[in-house]
Design brief:
The chain has 471 residues and is mainly α.
């Protein structure tokens, strides 16, 4: 029964706050990333006229490297939480016999969904310290993160940031498929309907990017060049979205294993391994691959000179550094509290705030940045509406979602019986969870020292003894 409800989650106040914080910092991260790619700076050299050489700071690998460096701050927070025994999702210092580094064992009072509650047989395993191999095992999501981020950063060079965000929303398609066939989590019919509308939105938004790039003024050759670059940008982003989906599903698996990794450790180790891989693999390849950055795809020495000689680039990177860390922190907590599908849904909601922020920057702050309104923006809004429509269907039967019960906007689809079945199963699961919590509480009482106390009647002791025998 629990497998059928693995993708049905109740969103409480904690989950809503985490979701909103992830959106806020995710928006700031996207805007800072695109802004840095539009900044100009000097590398300290002079041209033939004795003037400082000014270049465009399009450094996607540097931003990827900066993301991992920022994520390493998670290790500092992890050790801080352990040292001072601070209450934090994924850590539990209240249970007897639990050492530092132990992960939280969900109970009725935690905010985890009941489908992720560990049985009594798993309690001893979950309370063990994190083994050494886990620190090396967490290099795997770092590899996925490195590949996905590099692909998306390269694609971002050819697309507007709002289109970039909406194309990344295709990740829910890949996550849903892997949840069904890799993690073996059952998806209901309304889940697949929601995924279908997400596919439609990706097609609409991708078409908008192609039309916008080829619909401006200029000669035919220029338009063909822009359309070709946009096509590659879309391909890079779609590939990055697939790799990112693999990372989301893997992270969910790591945080729900018998010996799970706490969220802060997961973020910090991803940052550590990602930084090592960036310095040892990504940057050497970027330097030796031919490109437009002084003969390389990206010249790290030129990047460093531009960074040290430009105040604006330093400020933008400083904001990006903290935005990317807090976004990854809250996004992983969304996965921990809910699921990897919700992490993908988070990326689907971000285009709304990115779109509004981009327009605000362009018209109210500086037209050199942000995004202007075009003749194709109406189609882009329509694609965004379809994306949100599909997400609301997928989110059923929670509050604020759309239930397909034969309404006109449901296009004749009626899944009322499935919603009722899910509701019944959820109620039964809640009852089982409450009974299990009471049983565990009663079991703890039978092992307390009060059983030898003369203040406890012989009848009470006998009843508690019977309860202990049944356990």
């Amino acid at each position: 029964m629990s497998s059928n409800l693995a993708n049905v989650h109740n969103c409480g106040l904690t989950e809503v706050i985490l979701f909103l914080l992830a959106i806020i910092f995710g928006t700031g991260c996207s805007i800072c990333s695109k802004t840095m790619m539009g900044l100009h700076g000097t590398n300290g050299t002079l041209d033939e006229y004795g003037m400082p050489t000014v270049e465009l700071f399009q450094k996607p690998l540097f931003q990827t490297f900066g993301m991992f460096v920022g994520m390493m701050f998670g290790l500092v927070m992890h050790w801080f939480v352990l040292a001072f025994k601070i209450s934090f999702p994924g850590y539990d210092f209240d249970q007897d016999g639990v050492d530092e580094g132990d992960v939280e064992i969900p109970t009725e009072t935690t905010s985890l969904t009941t489908s992720k509650m560990k049985t009594e047989s798993n309690v001893d395993t979950a309370s063990k310290e994190i083994p050494l191999w886990m620190y090396f095992f967490l290099a795997i999501p770092a590899i996925f993160d490195l590949a996905a981020t590099a692909l998306c950063m390269m694609g971002l060079q050819y697309l507007d940031v709002s289109i970039y965000q909406m194309l990344r929303g295709s990740g829910i398609i890949f996550v849903a498929l892997m949840k069904q066939h890799v993690l073996k989590d059952h998806l209901h019919q309304y889940h697949w309907v929601g995924v279908f509308w997400n596919v439609v939105s990706v097609v609409i938004v991708g078409g908008t990017a192609m039309l916008a790039s080829g619909g401006g003024d200029g000669d035919e050759g220029s338009n063909n060049s822009n359309a070709s670059e946009t096509f590659w940008g879309v391909c890079l982003l779609m590939t990055g979205a697939f790799v990112q989906a693999v990372q989301f599903v893997f992270e969910e698996h790591v945080m729900t294993m018998d010996i799970p990794a706490p969220p802060l450790l997961l973020i910090g180790m991803e940052g550590l391994w990602g930084t090592i891989l960036s310095l040892c693999v990504m940057y050497p390849l970027g330097y030796y691959f031919p490109g437009s950055d002084h003969g390389s795809y990206e010249d790290p020495f030129n990047t460093w000179e531009m960074f040290t000689h430009s105040r604006n680039i330093q400020i933008a990177f400083f904001i990006y550094f903290f935005a990317i860390f807090f976004y990854n922190l809250f996004a992983v907590l969304v996965t921990f509290q809910l699921s990897s599908v919700w992490h993908a849904i988070l990326d689907n909601f971000r285009p709304i705030t990115v779109w509004g922020t981009d327009l605000f920057i362009y018209y109210c702050i500086n037209p050199l940045f942000g995004e202007a309104w075009t003749q194709w923006s109406y189609l882009q809004i329509f694609g965004m509406g379809v994306l949100l429509y599909g997400t609301a269907i997928y989110n059923a039967p929670n509050g604020g979602s759309l239930l397909l019960e034969g309404q006109w906007w449901a296009f004749g689809i009626n899944l009322s019986s499935e919603y009722e079945e899910v509701k019944r199963e959820q109620e039964e699961l809640d009852i089982d969870a409450k009974w299990e919590a009471k049983r565990q509480e009663f079991k703890v009482r039978t092992h307390s020292s009060f059983i030898e106390s003369p203040r406890i009647s012989i009848h009470t002791q006998a009843l508690r003894g019977i309860g202990a025998q049944h356990n």
